[in-house]
Automatic annotation (TrEMBL), chain A:
GO molecular function: ATP binding; ATP hydrolysis activity; branched-chain amino acid transmembrane transporter activity
Gene3D superfamilies recorded: P-loop containing nucleotide triphosphate hydrolases (3.40.50.300)
Swiss-Prot/TrEMBL keywords: ATP-binding, Cell membrane, Membrane, Nucleotide-binding, Transmembrane, Transmembrane helix, Transport
Lineage: Bacteria, Bacillati, Actinomycetota, Actinomycetes, Kitasatosporales
Pfam family, one: BCA_ABC_TP_C
Membrane-topology descriptor: Multi-pass membrane protein
Official protein name in the record: ABC transporter
Species the sequence originates in: Streptomyces brasiliensis
Residue ranges of every copy of the ABC transporter domain listed in the record: 647-890
PANTHER family: CONSERVED COMPONENT OF ABC TRANSPORTER FOR NATURAL AMINO ACIDS-RELATED
Protein's UniProt keywords contain Ribonucleoprotein: no
Residues annotated as signal peptide: none
Cellular-component GO terms for this entry: plasma membrane
UniProtKB/TrEMBL annotation, chain B:
InterPro entries to which the protein is assigned, alphabetical: BCAA_transport, Leu-bd, Peripla_BP_I
Keywords in alphabetical order: Signal
Keyword Signal found: yes
Alphabetical list of Gene3D superfamilies matching this protein: 3.40.50.2300
Highest rank taxon of the organism: Bacteria
Transmembrane segments: none
Full protein name: Branched chain amino acid ABC transporter substrate-binding protein
Start and end residues of each Leucine-binding protein domain: 52-363
Keyword field contains Signal: yes
Stretch forming the signal peptide: 1-26
SUPFAM superfamilies reported for this sequence: Periplasmic binding protein-like I
């Protein structure tokens, strides 16, 4: 027991270190929305500045401390103003990548200034040891722990009890709203970055004496710190403190008690990942705000351009290029494959997974084992490893089903850390110090051994890339690509259109893992032995960084980004021009390059290059009138009435924690009927729709469609069964055109599409119902316009048109008239009646516009505090005293006071 | 797009053309005036590995030999290639050696030898004086001609030195990577051969460690009073400070190839008394004629900084002199009459036995050693110590690990 307590206490030092770094990370995130990968690098700067001032320049303790902290804080403020502010409107991932570039830049600047060797520094805290009943702990560790606890308490108190804290919380939750109240996001961003950097400096000054000031080691501390910060949901200082201490103590205990390779290093991370996954949810909640994502290319392939380029490239590789350039091309193409996998995963599907390098490495390990242990030839090993990696990658992707955004990024990074610790550095599994011999490399009898003549191997990798790029382009142009883009843009909307988010993400991870596996195997097998101890989590970060800088939404972006990898074309060019360039200078320039490129081209180089090429092509070509495309929209089609379908809801109850939002509500919507659902704000109307359509799990009740139970089906299957909805918040695919939004609704949902699109993507076709929906809502002439350019009224109509285009049987409209002008409301009323009378839909409308409800609906159900308090015709509801009191106003004072006349149904 | 962007794009498009031209030119070049081409490959100024002393040692030897007329009337032309601690760059350096048709690679010191050695093997370029860094290929590749067992050898020898300091229980502290862990097994073998108890292995993750107190505690729990490191300098600093902070009395040993005056300076007081296991004498050991010659050459080349005089520098310096020795014919091998090329050097090394390398090492290039290091026929290790920030000799008797390993 004493030993257990001893090692637990010994973990407090590391726990305190992680706390100091993590709280600064959380502070910067809350103020600017950016996860700062350079937090450890700021700690390094603070530590080195203090060392320089105190030990080298001989300044007294306090001035040295204050100067070091102040200088680091100023650096943080400058970083915010020069890098984060210009990127304010860019994708969040672009801002994160900028911090990654900053980390590399600072790391190498430190090497250039203070040298590559780690520097031992004196502690400014007492280093004696306290002994308690046979258990020893350093006084300095206890003081550090106390400092971390006090810092946590101060941050918590400021956040909770001060106006600044309140403003910070507001700005963190809704920057626009906070700004409208006079709280400037810029001020908060700058302030939090100043404070966060100051805290990092203090962390660096306190941590350095425990280990050393090392440019290689301190910046990488950000990896376990991320796990702790995420455990606190990037907002809770106390929980972040708890998680940091747990990680520190856990690592100390695991290091002593668990001798299996890599467990000590990966265990704390894995535990926190498990908690985060369990805490997550399948579909984002109503309050979830989708982050801005980088632009995406069209996937169009011009054979007349591609084929000659491939032939010329093959000739150059085989006959012209010198060996060192050929080697660089191999590395470039292999990295391009890894980055291409990010195009599928992040560019198209919006999944920020940082595990791709690990996936590639695992595939290489599998291939190595198949060659070395099973005696298979390289070609068979390559194919088998790619096939076998898929279930592994899907296992890694499981967290993606319940997490998203930065959560997923950190979780996947944790998976990467675990794979590195448990597998790659495990000598028994990964071949030990000698590695795994790669043997003879031939592909179906063709010798491609790269040892002395690397040109054939380079050509092989190049052709693998070309094939993969063509497949990915097919996916982009096909239905599968549209599904991924829908999921990327708005998971809720995608599910409401019948797109299985689970299947879409599974497909994306599968395809990405195949491409990453090919990249990993071809990269590893260019050498004579596979040495895995060099596979580090940092490489996974670089895959994302290079993908973003190159242009993660574009196929050519993968090649451009790959040129930044060490050993690739970029390195070759630098080595050719500069003789033996200093690696620290190379790193510094590389880091600066990543930062500048992220700031200048948040959508990546490829997008800018393509715009330039298109501009050149337009100037060269004489402008010809664009041929009118075949009338795929068809002529105005009289809609075919849908099969009569009744929606029946019985005893529906929805609870959120201890709050009952909907209590035992029953209603029936018949074909051709418009049923209104009204009630004050918070009555449970949207919760009701969410429960019926599968976006919220009910606590009780039944939902039936023509007698068939729906309540056990996920959202996308209810959509497929015929329940369509529009959202209060519209949930349109903002960066797509009107037509593309409608195309998403025309998807038949077939899973076979994921396979066929790899080889032969289908040209999108508007179904007659979709064409009629566009006509019905007067959107045909806007079909090529981007959603973002439409008026608010048109966007509302598009939301309805998209629901109608699904060819549903039941339509649930959530506040369709909100924000419309009087004229628009009247037009909407006519459309809704026509959808019921001519299309035959059963329609449920949630609305606050009483005039619209009374004139449009056949019947009205009233909710108040989640309970049903009235049902009847509009006239009956208007006269119901309970409804009047709860919703419409005070009860009439006299019996003689009569309600306003309501136009009869015949007059509509 | 701005004009600046367009100009930058145009420049980027031109660079590959420029690079191809310059690279193509380099591939065809030969040594000026028929000079003997040698190459030194190592990593300089990268966070993971930093061997400026290797470069300095090789250059000093070449300068000195050329000043005395060169080899067989020809000057030596030494090219340096920095691997930047990157496996791709290590391969690129190996390719460069092949394209430049060097006669030998001298003093190769790099973690990524598994990338380079297969290329040298295929091209039949010998890596003379390769310094083994923990990869098995370095100790059994046909292209590798190490003078000593490198980190593997010093791992075996360490226990004898710790015993000389009074240690009874040896613990290995290693970075948690396969190459370091493999050396930890050799520490155990050495402890057993020295008649000491082996307490166990402490493994330290390569990243994410902010406090080394738990690892110091593990040493104590194992009863260790003698520690051999196979770890990074940062990890060594962390562990030493942590053990000293809790008053543990531990004798430490480390590879002299990875810890010299500069590392001692950066470590400060905790490094005082650190035992360094070395195949060569300390640079300050003026009783050795070989060391005197080394110092003279280094000082003449402007590399008098003691931080540049680690055993790795001595090894690289010796590797150039090994070429001289082979050219002149020693150890039973006749002098090389014609061109000094990779072929003639390899042929000479086939015949040479027990070659005396400046009194600092005995070398049988094609000899066979123990199973742990087949290419190392002779390996005797000495024990140096960090004293007042400098590297000084000790009185601890050297140990012949080839005999120890049988």
């Amino acid at each position: 027991m004493t030993t257990f307590i001893q090692f637990a206490l010994l973990g407090l030092g590391a726990g305190a270190a992680y706390t100091l770094l993590a709280q600064g990370l959380v502070l910067a995130y809350r103020g600017s929305g950016v996860l700062n990968f350079a937090q450890g690098a700021f700690a390094l700067i603070g530590g080195f500045l203090f060392f320089e001032l105190r030990q080298n320049q001989g300044l007294p303790l306090v001035p040295a401390l204050l100067l070091a902290v102040a200088a680091t804080a100023v650096l943080g403020g400058l970083v915010y103003d020069l890098i984060m502010r210009p990127l304010a409107k860019a994708a969040v991932i672009a801002r994160v990548i900028a911090t990654l570039g900053l980390m590399i830049l600072i790391q190498n600047a430190a090497v250039l200034i203070w040298g590559a060797n780690p520097q031992s520094v004196h502690s400014l805290l007492p280093t004696s040891t306290l002994s308690l009943g046979g258990v020893y702990v350093g006084i300095d560790r206890l003081i550090m722990f106390a400092i971390a606890a006090v810092l946590t308490a101060v941050l918590w108190a400021v956040n909770r009890f001060t106006t600044v804290g309140l403003a910070l919380r507001a700005a963190s939750d809704n920057p626009v709203a906070a700004a409208s109240l006079g709280w400037s996001p810029t001020t908060f961003g700058r302030l939090t970055w100043l404070l966060s950097s100051a805290v990092a400096a203090v962390a660096g000054i306190l941590i350095a004496p425990l280990s050393s000031l090392s440019a290689a080691d301190m910046p990488i501390l950000v990896v376990p710190v991320l796990a702790a910060a995420l455990f606190g949901a990037l907002k809770s200082f106390p929980i972040t403190f708890l998680a940091s201490v747990l990680i520190g103590v856990g690592q100390s205990l695991a290091g002593y008690y668990v001798h299996a390779q890599g467990v000590a290093e990966s265990l704390p991370f894995l535990l926190i990942i498990a908690v985060l996954v369990l805490r997550g949810r399948g579909l984002p909640g109503r309050g979830h705000v989708n982050d801005m994502l980088p632009e995406v290319g069209s996937g169009r392939v011009r054979p007349l351009l591609v084929i000659p380029l491939v032939v010329i490239a093959a000739f150059l590789i085989l006959r012209v290029f010198p060996i060192d350039l050929v080697d660089a091309l191999t590395v470039t193409m292999a990295w391009a494959l890894l980055l291409l996998s990010m195009t599928v995963l992040l560019g198209y599907a919006g999944q920020l997974s940082l595990a791709q390098f690990a996936v590639g490495g695992l595939a290489a390990l599998l291939a190595g084992k198949l060659v070395n242990d099973a005696g298979l030839p390289f070609s068979a090993a390559l194919i088998l490893s790619v096939v076998l990696i898929v279930p592994v990658a899907l296992l890694i992707s499981l967290p993606a089903l319940r997490t998203r955004g930065m959560d997923l990024a950190v979780i996947s990074l944790g998976v990467c850390v675990a794979v590195t610790a448990l597998v790659f550095t495990n000598g028994d599994l990964a071949g030990g110090a000698a590695g795994i011999p790669t043997g003879d490399r031939s592909f179906f009898g063709i010798d491609i051994d790269p040892l002395m003549d690397p040109s054939k191997y380079a050509l092989f990798v190049f052709l693998v890339f070309v094939v993969c790029a063509l497949v990915v382009a097919n996916v982009r142009r096909g239905t599968a690509g549209r599904r991924l883009l829908a999921i990327r843009t708005n998971e809720r909307a995608a599910a409401s259109l019948g797109i299985s988010v689970f299947a879409g993400k599974g497909f994306a991870f599968t395809l990405a893992s195949v491409v990453a596996a090919l990249g990993g195997v071809t990269l590893a097998f260019k050498d004579s032995a596979l040495i895995f101890e060099n596979y580090q989590p940092m490489s996974s970060l670089l895959v994302v960084a290079f993908a973003i800088v190159g242009g993660v939404g574009y196929l050519s972006g993968s090649i451009l980004g790959a040129t930044l990898a060490t050993g690739s074309i970029g390195s070759w060019i630098l080595m050719s021009i500069f003789d033996n360039p200093d690696p620290a200078w190379l790193g510094l320039v590389g880091g600066l390059g990543v930062v500048l490129l992220a700031v200048q081209n948040p959508n990546g180089l490829a997008g800018e290059n393509l715009k330039l090429l298109h501009a050149i092509a337009r100037r060269i070509r004489k402008s010809a009138p664009k041929p009118e495309s075949a009338d795929t929209l068809g002529r105005r089609v009289k809609p075919k009435p849908c099969p009569p379908t009744t929606l029946e809801v019985k005893g529906l109850t929805v609870r959120y924690g201890g709050v009952t939002a909907v209590s035992n509500v029953s209603l029936t919507v018949r074909p051709g009927e418009v049923l209104g659902l009204i009630g004050p704000n918070g009555a449970g109307k949207t919760s009701f729709i969410d429960a019926v359509t599968g976006f919220t799990a009910p606590a009780a009740g039944e939902i039936r469609l023509n007698g068939e139970r729906m309540d056990r089906r996920p959202a996308h299957l209810r959509a497929r069964a015929g329940i369509a909805r529009s959202f209060q918040s519209l949930e349109l695919f903002e960066t797509s055109s009107v037509q593309e939004n409608i195309f998403a609704a025309c998807d038949d949902g077939s899973l076979r599409t994921y396979l066929t699109d790899l080889f032969h993507p289908r040209t999108p076709v508007l179904t007659p119902e979709a064409a009629a929906a566009l006509d019905e809502l007067d959107l045909t002439r806007h079909r090529d316009e981007l959603v973002g350019s439409l008026s608010y009224g048109k966007r509302r109509l598009l939301a309805i048109a998209r629901a109608v285009a699904q060819n549903p049987k039941v339509l649930l409209l959530d506040e369709p008239a909100a924000g419309l002008s009087g004229q628009e409301v009247e037009e909407l009323r006519v459309v809704v009646r026509r959808l019921a009378d001519e299309w035959g839909f059963a329609i449920l409308v949630v609305e606050h516009d009483m005039s619209f409800v009374m004139q449009t609906c056949d019947h009205v159900t009233v909710l108040n505090f989640g309970e049903q308090i009235g049902y009847g015709t509009p006239e009956e509801i208007q006269a119901d005293p309970a409804v009047v009191e709860a919703y419409l106003g005070q009860v009439a004072e006299t019996a003689e006071e009569e309600p306003e006349p309501v136009p009869s149904k015949e007059s509509r | 797009m701005t004009r600046t962007h367009k100009a930058a794009l145009a420049l980027v498009a031109l660079l590959p053309v420029l690079g191809a031209c310059s690279s193509a030119g380099a591939a065809n070049s030969e040594g000026s005036d028929g000079a003997i081409k040698l190459m030194n490959i190592t990593a300089v100024n990268s966070p993971l590995q930093n061997y400026p002393d290797v470069k300095a040692g090789a250059e000093a030897a070449v300068k000195s030999i050329n000043a005395k007329g060169g080899l067989n009337g020809k000057k030596i032309e030494l090219t340096f290639c920095n691997t930047n601690s990157d496996p791709n760059q290590a391969l690129a350096c190996a390719r460069k050696a092949v394209s430049q048709k060097v006669a030998a690679v001298v003093g190769y010191t790099d973690t990524f030898s598994s990338q380079a050695l297969p290329v040298f093997e295929k091209a039949k370029i010998p890596a003379i004086g390769l310094m083994p860094r923990g990869n098995a290929i370095e100790l059994n590749s046909a292209a590798a001609y190490p003078f000593e067992g490198g980190s593997a050898g010093s791992s075996v020898a360490a226990a004898a030195g710790l015993k000389g300091e009074g240690a009874k229980v040896v613990v290995s502290v290693a970075a948690d990577v396969p190459s370091a862990v493999a050396n930890a097994d050799l520490v155990k073998k050495g402890a057993e051969a020295a008649g000491l108890k082996f307490g166990g292995s402490v493994k330290i993750p390569t990243s994410g460690v902010s406090d080394f107190a738990p690892y110091a505690r593990q040493i104590k729990a194992m009863g260790g009073d003698g520690v051999m490191f196979n770890a990074t300098v940062g990890q060594i600093q962390g562990v030493m400070k942590a053990t000293q902070a809790v008053g543990m009395k531990v004798h430490y040993a480390q590879h002299a190839t990875a810890f010299g005056v500069n590392e001692a300076k950066k470590t400060g007081a905790p490094a005082e008394g650190l035992l360094l296991v070395s195949a060569y004498q300390a640079y300050s050991d003026t009783s050795s004629e070989g060391i005197k010659a080394f110092n003279a050459d280094m000082d003449a080349a402007g590399s008098s900084d003691p931080g540049l005089k680690r055993p790795t520098a001595i090894n690289a310096w010796l590797s150039v002199y090994a070429v001289k020795v082979l050219a002149e014919g020693q150890g039973g091998a006749p002098a090389i009459k014609g061109d000094i090329s990779s072929a003639s050097l390899s042929d000479a090394m086939t015949k040479a036995k027990n070659v005396d390398l400046m009194g600092l090492a005995t070398w049988t290039p094609k000899g066979s050693g123990p199973a742990e290091m087949p290419r190392v026929a002779h390996a005797s290790y000495r024990f140096l110590v960090i004293k007042a920030g400098a590297v000084a000799p000790t009185d601890i008797a050297p140990v012949d690990i080839v005999k120890e390993l049988g």
